[in-house]
Amino acid sequence: EEEVRVAFELGRTSPAFRSLIGTNNGIGASGLIIDGTEEQKQYYLPRFAKGEIIGSFCLTEPESGSDAASLRTTAVKDDDFYILNGTKRFITNAPHAGAFTVMARTNSEVKGSGGISAFIIDSKTPGISLGKRDQKMGQKGAHTCDVIFENCRVPASALIGGVEGIGFKTAMKVLDKGRLHIGAYSVGVAERMLDDALRYAVERKQFGQPIANFQLIQAMLADSKAEIYAAKCMVLDAAR
Protein backbone atom coordinates (compact mmCIF):
# COMPACT_ATOMS: atom_id res chain seq x y z
CA GLU A 1 0.00 0.00 0.00
CA GLU A 2 2.87 2.38 0.75
CA GLU A 3 4.32 1.80 -2.71
CA VAL A 4 1.06 2.53 -4.53
CA ARG A 5 0.62 5.75 -2.53
CA VAL A 6 4.08 6.82 -3.73
CA ALA A 7 3.03 5.90 -7.29
CA PHE A 8 -0.10 8.07 -6.97
CA GLU A 9 2.17 11.05 -6.34
CA LEU A 10 4.68 10.15 -9.04
CA GLY A 11 1.79 9.95 -11.50
CA ARG A 12 1.10 13.64 -10.98
CA THR A 13 4.50 14.47 -12.48
CA SER A 14 5.92 13.46 -15.86
CA PRO A 15 5.23 9.80 -16.78
CA ALA A 16 8.84 9.67 -17.96
CA PHE A 17 9.94 9.09 -14.36
CA ARG A 18 7.63 6.15 -13.77
CA SER A 19 9.56 3.50 -15.62
CA LEU A 20 12.91 4.49 -14.18
CA ILE A 21 11.72 4.36 -10.57
CA GLY A 22 8.98 1.75 -11.00
CA THR A 23 11.19 -0.72 -12.85
CA ASN A 24 14.15 -0.27 -10.51
CA ASN A 25 12.11 -0.58 -7.30
CA GLY A 26 9.63 -3.02 -8.86
CA ILE A 27 10.35 -5.67 -11.48
CA GLY A 28 14.09 -4.87 -11.50
CA ALA A 29 14.49 -5.83 -7.83
CA SER A 30 11.39 -7.80 -6.86
CA GLY A 31 12.73 -11.11 -8.16
CA LEU A 32 15.49 -10.96 -5.58
CA ILE A 33 13.16 -9.85 -2.80
CA ILE A 34 10.72 -12.69 -3.53
CA ASP A 35 12.99 -15.61 -4.44
CA GLY A 36 16.65 -14.50 -4.12
CA THR A 37 19.21 -16.06 -1.83
CA GLU A 38 20.36 -14.08 1.18
CA GLU A 39 23.73 -13.48 -0.47
CA GLN A 40 22.08 -12.13 -3.63
CA LYS A 41 19.86 -9.81 -1.61
CA GLN A 42 22.75 -8.46 0.46
CA TYR A 43 24.88 -7.81 -2.62
CA TYR A 44 22.30 -6.15 -4.90
CA LEU A 45 19.41 -4.67 -2.91
CA PRO A 46 21.34 -2.00 -0.97
CA ARG A 47 22.90 -0.85 -4.27
CA PHE A 48 19.48 -0.61 -5.92
CA ALA A 49 18.12 1.31 -2.93
CA LYS A 50 21.02 3.79 -2.89
CA GLY A 51 20.83 4.40 -6.64
CA GLU A 52 24.36 3.07 -7.17
CA ILE A 53 22.98 0.80 -9.90
CA ILE A 54 19.68 0.70 -11.82
CA GLY A 55 17.69 -2.51 -12.18
CA SER A 56 16.15 -3.93 -15.33
CA PHE A 57 13.93 -6.95 -16.12
CA CYS A 58 14.61 -9.09 -19.21
CA LEU A 59 11.65 -11.29 -20.10
CA THR A 60 10.17 -10.19 -23.47
CA GLU A 61 11.76 -11.49 -26.68
CA PRO A 62 11.18 -10.90 -30.42
CA GLU A 63 9.00 -14.04 -30.57
CA SER A 64 7.82 -14.09 -26.96
CA GLY A 65 5.74 -11.36 -25.35
CA SER A 66 2.41 -12.18 -23.74
CA ASP A 67 3.23 -15.88 -24.24
CA ALA A 68 6.23 -15.62 -21.94
CA ALA A 69 6.51 -19.38 -21.46
CA SER A 70 7.69 -19.74 -25.08
CA LEU A 71 10.90 -17.75 -24.58
CA ARG A 72 13.96 -19.01 -26.44
CA THR A 73 16.95 -17.50 -24.63
CA THR A 74 19.04 -20.39 -23.33
CA ALA A 75 21.27 -20.86 -20.29
CA VAL A 76 23.43 -23.97 -20.60
CA LYS A 77 25.22 -25.26 -17.49
CA ASP A 78 29.02 -25.47 -17.82
CA ASP A 79 30.67 -26.57 -14.57
CA ASP A 80 30.12 -23.69 -12.14
CA PHE A 81 28.85 -21.35 -14.86
CA TYR A 82 25.92 -20.86 -17.22
CA ILE A 83 26.36 -19.80 -20.86
CA LEU A 84 23.53 -17.52 -22.02
CA ASN A 85 22.49 -16.92 -25.62
CA GLY A 86 19.46 -15.00 -26.89
CA THR A 87 17.87 -11.59 -27.44
CA LYS A 88 15.51 -9.67 -25.16
CA ARG A 89 13.34 -6.88 -26.62
CA PHE A 90 11.76 -3.61 -25.35
CA ILE A 91 13.72 -3.84 -22.09
CA THR A 92 13.03 -0.84 -19.86
CA ASN A 93 16.06 0.86 -18.22
CA ALA A 94 18.40 -1.33 -20.29
CA PRO A 95 20.51 1.60 -21.64
CA HIS A 96 21.37 2.58 -18.05
CA ALA A 97 21.10 -0.71 -16.15
CA GLY A 98 23.70 -1.95 -13.72
CA ALA A 99 22.05 -5.35 -13.34
CA PHE A 100 19.56 -7.43 -15.31
CA THR A 101 17.04 -9.94 -14.01
CA VAL A 102 17.04 -12.41 -16.91
CA MET A 103 14.68 -15.26 -17.71
CA ALA A 104 16.30 -18.06 -19.73
CA ARG A 105 15.61 -21.69 -20.56
CA THR A 106 17.90 -24.01 -18.59
CA ASN A 107 16.14 -27.21 -19.66
CA SER A 108 15.54 -27.49 -23.41
CA GLU A 109 13.62 -30.76 -22.96
CA VAL A 110 10.88 -29.01 -21.00
CA LYS A 111 8.94 -26.93 -23.55
CA GLY A 112 6.72 -24.93 -21.21
CA SER A 113 7.36 -22.74 -18.21
CA GLY A 114 8.99 -25.51 -16.16
CA GLY A 115 12.26 -25.24 -18.09
CA ILE A 116 12.77 -21.52 -17.35
CA SER A 117 15.13 -20.15 -14.70
CA ALA A 118 15.88 -16.64 -13.47
CA PHE A 119 19.31 -15.00 -13.18
CA ILE A 120 20.63 -11.75 -11.75
CA ILE A 121 23.47 -10.59 -14.00
CA ASP A 122 25.86 -7.64 -13.84
CA SER A 123 25.39 -5.55 -16.98
CA LYS A 124 29.15 -5.32 -17.51
CA THR A 125 29.48 -9.08 -17.94
CA PRO A 126 31.29 -9.93 -21.22
CA GLY A 127 28.91 -11.22 -23.88
CA ILE A 128 26.17 -8.65 -23.18
CA SER A 129 25.50 -5.98 -25.79
CA LEU A 130 22.70 -3.45 -26.24
CA GLY A 131 20.67 -2.65 -29.33
CA LYS A 132 19.81 0.82 -30.57
CA ARG A 133 17.55 2.76 -28.21
CA ASP A 134 13.91 2.42 -29.31
CA GLN A 135 12.23 5.46 -30.86
CA LYS A 136 8.70 5.84 -29.51
CA MET A 137 5.70 8.09 -30.08
CA GLY A 138 5.29 8.71 -26.36
CA GLN A 139 7.03 7.77 -23.08
CA LYS A 140 10.26 9.06 -24.59
CA GLY A 141 11.75 9.39 -21.12
CA ALA A 142 11.33 5.64 -20.62
CA HIS A 143 14.44 4.31 -22.33
CA THR A 144 14.18 0.82 -23.82
CA CYS A 145 16.31 -1.29 -26.15
CA ASP A 146 17.29 -4.86 -27.02
CA VAL A 147 19.61 -6.75 -24.69
CA ILE A 148 21.68 -9.37 -26.55
CA PHE A 149 23.46 -12.30 -24.90
CA GLU A 150 26.20 -13.95 -26.95
CA ASN A 151 28.00 -16.74 -25.11
CA CYS A 152 27.58 -14.69 -21.95
CA ARG A 153 29.25 -16.62 -19.14
CA VAL A 154 27.78 -16.05 -15.68
CA PRO A 155 28.59 -17.82 -12.40
CA ALA A 156 26.12 -20.36 -11.04
CA SER A 157 25.70 -18.03 -8.06
CA ALA A 158 23.72 -15.74 -10.41
CA LEU A 159 20.84 -18.25 -10.48
CA ILE A 160 18.09 -16.55 -8.45
CA GLY A 161 17.27 -18.69 -5.43
CA GLY A 162 19.91 -21.20 -6.49
CA VAL A 163 17.21 -23.43 -8.01
CA GLU A 164 16.55 -24.16 -11.68
CA GLY A 165 13.06 -24.30 -13.19
CA ILE A 166 11.30 -21.74 -10.98
CA GLY A 167 12.15 -18.66 -13.06
CA PHE A 168 8.75 -18.43 -14.74
CA LYS A 169 7.00 -18.49 -11.36
CA THR A 170 9.38 -15.78 -10.15
CA ALA A 171 8.58 -13.67 -13.23
CA MET A 172 4.83 -14.00 -12.77
CA LYS A 173 5.02 -13.03 -9.08
CA VAL A 174 7.17 -10.04 -10.01
CA LEU A 175 4.71 -8.93 -12.71
CA ASP A 176 1.73 -9.27 -10.35
CA LYS A 177 3.30 -6.66 -8.11
CA GLY A 178 4.41 -4.55 -11.07
CA ARG A 179 0.86 -4.30 -12.36
CA LEU A 180 -0.21 -2.80 -9.04
CA HIS A 181 2.36 -0.08 -9.59
CA ILE A 182 1.10 0.57 -13.13
CA GLY A 183 -2.49 0.79 -11.87
CA ALA A 184 -1.52 3.25 -9.14
CA TYR A 185 0.53 5.36 -11.53
CA SER A 186 -2.37 5.51 -13.97
CA VAL A 187 -4.59 6.84 -11.19
CA GLY A 188 -2.02 9.54 -10.43
CA VAL A 189 -1.87 10.56 -14.10
CA ALA A 190 -5.68 10.71 -14.25
CA GLU A 191 -5.83 12.89 -11.12
CA ARG A 192 -3.34 15.30 -12.66
CA MET A 193 -5.33 15.46 -15.90
CA LEU A 194 -8.55 16.16 -14.01
CA ASP A 195 -6.87 18.95 -12.04
CA ASP A 196 -5.64 20.48 -15.30
CA ALA A 197 -9.07 20.11 -16.90
CA LEU A 198 -10.83 21.72 -13.94
CA ARG A 199 -8.38 24.62 -13.89
CA TYR A 200 -8.90 25.18 -17.63
CA ALA A 201 -12.69 25.02 -17.27
CA VAL A 202 -12.57 27.77 -14.64
CA GLU A 203 -10.23 29.98 -16.69
CA ARG A 204 -11.68 29.45 -20.18
CA LYS A 205 -14.56 31.78 -21.00
CA GLN A 206 -17.27 31.45 -23.65
CA PHE A 207 -20.47 33.50 -23.99
CA GLY A 208 -19.22 35.80 -21.24
CA GLN A 209 -18.70 33.17 -18.53
CA PRO A 210 -16.32 30.35 -17.53
CA ILE A 211 -17.16 27.08 -19.29
CA ALA A 212 -17.19 25.46 -15.82
CA ASN A 213 -20.65 27.07 -15.44
CA PHE A 214 -22.06 24.91 -18.23
CA GLN A 215 -23.86 21.79 -17.07
CA LEU A 216 -22.33 19.49 -19.71
CA ILE A 217 -18.78 20.48 -18.68
CA GLN A 218 -19.70 19.96 -15.02
CA ALA A 219 -21.05 16.49 -15.80
CA MET A 220 -17.88 15.50 -17.67
CA LEU A 221 -15.72 16.64 -14.77
CA ALA A 222 -17.96 14.90 -12.22
CA ASP A 223 -17.94 11.63 -14.17
CA SER A 224 -14.15 11.75 -14.37
CA LYS A 225 -13.91 12.39 -10.63
CA ALA A 226 -16.14 9.39 -9.88
CA GLU A 227 -14.22 7.06 -12.21
CA ILE A 228 -10.86 8.11 -10.76
CA TYR A 229 -12.18 7.64 -7.21
CA ALA A 230 -13.37 4.12 -8.08
CA ALA A 231 -10.02 3.26 -9.67
CA LYS A 232 -8.13 4.55 -6.66
CA CYS A 233 -10.27 2.50 -4.28
CA MET A 234 -9.67 -0.65 -6.34
CA VAL A 235 -5.90 -0.11 -6.49
CA LEU A 236 -5.69 0.42 -2.72
CA ASP A 237 -7.89 -2.62 -2.10
CA ALA A 238 -5.70 -4.78 -4.36
CA ALA A 239 -2.52 -3.47 -2.72
CA ARG A 240 -3.82 -4.29 0.77
Radius of gyration: 21 Å
- For the report, how would you describe the main beta sheet? 4 strands, antiparallel
Strand content: 15-25%
- Ends apart, CA distance between termini: 6 Å
- Please state how the strands of the largest beta sheet are arranged side by side: 2-3-7-6
The sequence of SSEs as H and E is HHHHEEEEEEEHEEH
Low-pLDDT runs of 5+ residues are none
Shape: elongated
β-strand number: 9
Supply the helix-strand structural class.
alpha+beta
Average pLDDT across residues? 93
The percent range for helix content is: 40-55%
Specify the number of helices: 6
What does this structure look like?
- With 240 residues, the chain is an alpha+beta fold.
- 42% of the residues lie in helices and 22% in strands.
- It contains six helices and nine strands, in the order H-H-H-H-E-E-E-E-E-E-E-H-E-E-H.
- The chain has helices at 2-10, 16-25, 30-35, 38-50, 167-203, 215-239, and strands at 55-58, 74-78, 81-92, 99-105, 116-122, 128-130, 144-155, 205-206, 209-210.
- The strands form three sheets. Strands 2-3-7-6 form a four-stranded antiparallel sheet, with helices on one face. Strands 1-4-5 form a three-stranded mixed sheet.
- Strand 8 (205-206) and strand 9 form a beta hairpin.
- Helix 1 crosses helix 5 (167-203).
- The longest helix has 37 residues, at 167-203.
- It is elongated and about 80 Å long.
- It starts with a helix and ends with a helix.
- The model has no long low-confidence stretch (mean pLDDT 93).
